[in-house]
Amino acid sequence: MRTARNIGYILGLPVLLVLVWWLSTLGSVNFFVPKPADLVETFGEVWFGDRFFSDVLPSLGRLVVGVAVAILIGVVGGVLIGSVRWLRALLEPTLEFFRAIPPPVLVPVLMLLMGITDSMKVMVIISGCVWPVLLNTIEGVRAVDPVLSDSAHTYGISGWARVRYLVLPSASPQIMAGVRQSLSLGLILMVISEMFASSSGLGFTIVQFQRSFAIPEMWSGIVVLGLLGVAMSFIFQWAERNILRWYHGQKEVENAA
Amino acid sequence: MSPGTLAAGGAAPPKERQRRKAGKGAAKQLLGILGIIGFLATWELIPRLGLIDERFLPPASEVIAALVVDFGLTAFWVAVGETMKAWFLGLLMAVAAAVLLGFIIGSSDFLRKATNSTIEFLRPIPSVALIPLAVLLFGVKIESSLLLIVYASFWQVLIQVLYGVADVDMVANNTAKTYGLGRMARIRYVVFPTALPYLMTGVRLAAAVALVLAITAELVIGSPGLGREIALAQSGGAISGMYALVLATGLIGVLINMLMRQIEKRILGWHSSIRSEVIV
What we know:
The complex is a heterodimer.
Chain A: H1 2-24, H2 36-47, H3 50-83, H4 85-100, H5 106-114, H6 118-142, H7 146-154, H8 159-196, H9 202-211, H10 215-243, H11 245-256
Helix pairs in contact in A: 2-10, 3-6, 3-8, 4-6, 5-6, 6-8, 8-9, 8-10, 9-10
Chain B: H1 3-8, H2 14-48, H3 60-71, H4 74-106, H5 109-122, H6 131-138, H7 142-166, H8 170-178, H9 183-220, H10 226-235, H11 239-267, H12 272-279
Helix pairs in contact in B: 3-11, 4-7, 4-9, 6-7, 7-9, 9-10, 9-11, 10-11
């Protein structure tokens, strides 16, 4: 009974919305709004063919490489900058400025510096995604519990062991918050870099459909991007639950007390 | 315990501690300025030494000179005005809609459960996916920017408002009920103050996101504003001009961040998260 009600809660509104969409387009011939059945059909035709290999996979590849490199640079740089006090004071204002630059303006700049290449698109993703991770890591490293830090010092834990067992775990909630921001930024930058300068990829294909007024195809592209965003968010939540299990447990105990 | 006893109970006399703190702050600021100077010097040297061709990366001095020239041009300020207009209107609409919906959904257990899956599904959809739609519907007008800005910032605020409304202290709420406060009065005096810090966090995040989307729309779609000027400068080969505009967007970003932090401090002056910052 309880599960039935939960399923009702989860599916109720989406089903209702699709129903409204279906009914309102039943008799209409509106050029801009496709019918649900048409959209599903187009979706299959357009995206489960050659295009999957020629556009979707390369885009995804660039996204994964870009975000992974950005996280790596962000965490390593953040641990370094966060643990050295004068370095942090020296770099913080400059870094804040770089974070404040809206990442999409990097597309024309990098296009100029690197030409229209795959590595340019990866570079756009890296240079946009690195800031949230970097600055959050610095914040997290700075906020390491001083008692834990002193204890580690007393036990002679230093160098790599200190980073591995003290700094990284205690900064990980902040780091994950940064990663979450980077992921959604990365998806945006992937699409923009392809819309702006490309002859393949998801962003390019969708703009191409729009320019040739292939409306159902365009909608199906929007759906692909949406599904991608949702999938990434689920993967992230799963990863976060596993990585931060100890942290959420600790929070629960604290809240209960 | 009042703030006065806290400060007096500390190890060092308050005045001396304040001075020591000020000295530390000054040293930190000095290092920060040194960092900026160092960055600009590196930027100046890279093209001068020929590491990157001057045609692609002009030295910092040239770019800053171009930015100063921009400051004297009406066209530059018109573009800034267009960008800020889209930013402000978009943010305003998103916040208004999110607050209204957030309070309605948040105050009913049924609505919260029923909308959860839909919200979780719609939220991660990247707003750039709507670019083709915006172009079809509005072309290169400001409405295109607004569509993207509102969609992106709406979720940031809505989620925070929902968290905030859920955080209401049951004891406070029941006390208010016992004292005969009506639904509207409870929303005004119990729910709203609880949700306000969350709301401000959401607005601060949304303000940054709104700027990114405003610039994106101008850059990719070509609606009027700084982003379009950047695209034009790039395709027209006005390279120093392009870098100057990129710097300008960064400055706007910094200003918006500072402004939002100030507003947050002003509005939440009564809240413990801000008060404790002041005391320590």
